[in-house]
């Protein structure tokens, strides 16, 4: 069945955090094997895709972190649209507009989620009707975090992170994010981890059973003691001042404090939404970070927003 053509589609796509990130020794292709538990949180970028009457692909970026995002062919949203266009012989182009709320190079998969949003938007705009499994395949070519951003919720990531399977999680968790000035390069953080630990002693990556059972229980206190990020030491080595941010959150009563993915964003688990508000206020009043955000998780992955009702 054909879908009716649309002039424009907007897709909302979430940031991710890693509740557990176990990193093995580098593979021969340079990537590290992972056992990670992702969670999608309610901090979103919106990508609007609008039809063009030629085959060009363009991007504009607006919002909180727009100045930090490239608008040339290195933009992950452009790369996603181009890959889909090439792989499926699409003879149409697209204008992309990204409303950016997720910190750039912050360890929250902002670029990856824009790529995931673009795949969903172009799939609809160009009437490709690709199944989720086909989109997952294209997503994996774009980056290790992109397949998770398509599915969202809570999921296990294996391989280099691109092989995702859903994980059962009960209830809603309340997170606070301390967004640092400047970003950290993901390859630099992996390289720092390799520098810090003797490779012959590195165990294969493993998912923590305590983390999986904490998620099933829905208890924030159980989750707090099961959180883990093997990249944290490397991020702290590159940005030692993050240790003070983590400690400040704990001193204010956060159940747990952790570097988000490759950093430098720090995340804090609160007992409930009220404590999250209090913690966010304290962090915002400290001079320890550029910006503070609060968000719940888990939430779904990249989703088409309903079109606004025209009058
Ligand atoms: C840190 C995480 O965000 C945790 O989910 C991801 O592992 C990073 O995922 P990503 O940003 O999508 O990374 P990619 O774009 O696939 O790879 C960027 C670079 O990060 C390093 N990289 C990434 C993933 C991985 N499993 N091992 C790596 O060593 C490699 O140097 C790679 O060239
Ligand atoms: N659409 C995009 N949004 C943000 N950054 C982008 C985008 N496209 C390309 N980039 C480039 O990618 C780099 C990494 O940005 P991103 O925000 O994805 O990092 P990250 O959140 O640390 O990634 P991850 O958590 O997946 O490792 C940026 O420094 C920027 O130059």
TrEMBL record:
<dbReference type="GO" id="GO:0050515">
    <property type="term" value="F:4-(cytidine 5'-diphospho)-2-C-methyl-D-erythritol kinase activity"/>
</dbReference>
<keyword id="KW-0547">Nucleotide-binding</keyword>
<feature type="domain" description="GHMP kinase C-terminal">
    <location>
        <begin position="212"/>
        <end position="284"/>
    </location>
</feature>
<dbReference type="InterPro" id="IPR036554">
    <property type="entry name" value="GHMP_kinase_C_sf"/>
</dbReference>
<dbReference type="InterPro" id="IPR013750">
    <property type="entry name" value="GHMP_kinase_C_dom"/>
</dbReference>
<keyword id="KW-0808">Transferase</keyword>
<dbReference type="InterPro" id="IPR014721">
    <property type="entry name" value="Ribsml_uS5_D2-typ_fold_subgr"/>
</dbReference>
<comment type="pathway">
    <text>Isoprenoid biosynthesis; isopentenyl diphosphate biosynthesis via DXP pathway; isopentenyl diphosphate from 1-deoxy-D-xylulose 5-phosphate: step 3/6.</text>
</comment>
<feature type="domain" description="GHMP kinase N-terminal">
    <location>
        <begin position="75"/>
        <end position="152"/>
    </location>
</feature>
<dbReference type="Pfam" id="PF08544">
    <property type="entry name" value="GHMP_kinases_C"/>
</dbReference>
<dbReference type="InterPro" id="IPR006204">
    <property type="entry name" value="GHMP_kinase_N_dom"/>
</dbReference>
<feature type="binding site">
    <location>
        <begin position="103"/>
        <end position="113"/>
    </location>
    <ligand>
        <name>ATP</name>
    </ligand>
</feature>
<keyword id="KW-0418">Kinase</keyword>
<dbReference type="InterPro" id="IPR020568">
    <property type="entry name" value="Ribosomal_Su5_D2-typ_SF"/>
</dbReference>
<dbReference type="GO" id="GO:0005524">
    <property type="term" value="F:ATP binding"/>
</dbReference>
<feature type="active site">
    <location>
        <position position="145"/>
    </location>
</feature>
<dbReference type="GO" id="GO:0019288">
    <property type="term" value="P:isopentenyl diphosphate biosynthetic process, methylerythritol 4-phosphate pathway"/>
</dbReference>
<protein>
    <recommendedName>
        <fullName>4-diphosphocytidyl-2-C-methyl-D-erythritol kinase</fullName>
        <ecNumber>2.7.1.148</ecNumber>
    </recommendedName>
</protein>
<keyword id="KW-0067">ATP-binding</keyword>
<comment type="similarity">
    <text>Belongs to the GHMP kinase family. IspE subfamily.</text>
</comment>
<comment type="function">
    <text>Catalyzes the phosphorylation of the position 2 hydroxy group of 4-diphosphocytidyl-2C-methyl-D-erythritol.</text>
</comment>
<dbReference type="Pfam" id="PF00288">
    <property type="entry name" value="GHMP_kinases_N"/>
</dbReference>
<dbReference type="InterPro" id="IPR004424">
    <property type="entry name" value="IspE"/>
</dbReference>
<feature type="active site">
    <location>
        <position position="16"/>
    </location>
</feature>
<keyword id="KW-0414">Isoprene biosynthesis</keyword>
<dbReference type="GO" id="GO:0016114">
    <property type="term" value="P:terpenoid biosynthetic process"/>
</dbReference>
């Amino acid at each position: 069945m054909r879908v009716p053509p649309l002039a424009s589609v907007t897709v909302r796509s979430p940031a991710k955090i890693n509740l557990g990130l176990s990193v093995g020794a580098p593979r021969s292709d340079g990537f590290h094997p992972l056992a990670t538990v992702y969670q999608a949180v309610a901090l979103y970028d919106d990508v609007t895709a609008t039809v063009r009457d030629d085959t060009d692909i363009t991007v504009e970026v607006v919002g909180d972190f727009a100045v930090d995002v490239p608008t040339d062919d290195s933009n992950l949203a452009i790369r996603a649209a181009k890959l889909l266009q090439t792989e499926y012989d699409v003879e149409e182009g697209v204008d992309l507009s990204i409303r950016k709320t997720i910190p750039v190079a912050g360890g929250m998969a902002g670029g990856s989620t824009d790529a995931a949003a673009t795949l969903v938007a172009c799939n609809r705009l160009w009437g490709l009707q690709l199944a989720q499994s086909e989109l997952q395949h294209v997503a994996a070519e774009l980056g290790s975090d992109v397949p998770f951003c398509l599915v969202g919720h809570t999921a296990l990531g294996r391989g280099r992170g691109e092989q995702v399977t859903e994980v059962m999680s009960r209830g809603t968790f309340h997170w606070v994010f301390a967004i640092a000035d400047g970003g950290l390069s993901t390859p630099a953080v992996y390289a720092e981890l390799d520098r810090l630990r003797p490779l012959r002693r590195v165990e294969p990556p493993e998912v923590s059973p305590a983390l999986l059972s904490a998620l099933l229980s829905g208890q924030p206190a159980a989750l707090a003691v099961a959180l883990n990020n093997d990249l944290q030491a490397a991020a702290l080595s590159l940005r030692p001042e993050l240790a003070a941010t983590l400690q400040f959150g704990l001193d204010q009563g956060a159940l747990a404090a952790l570097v988000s993915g490759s950093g430098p964003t720090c995340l804090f688990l609160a007992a409930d939404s009220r404590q999250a508000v209090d913690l966010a206020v304290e962090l915002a009043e400290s001079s320890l970070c550029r910006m503070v955000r609060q968000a719940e998780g888990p939430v779904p992955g990249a989703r088409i927003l309903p079109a606004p009702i025209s009058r």
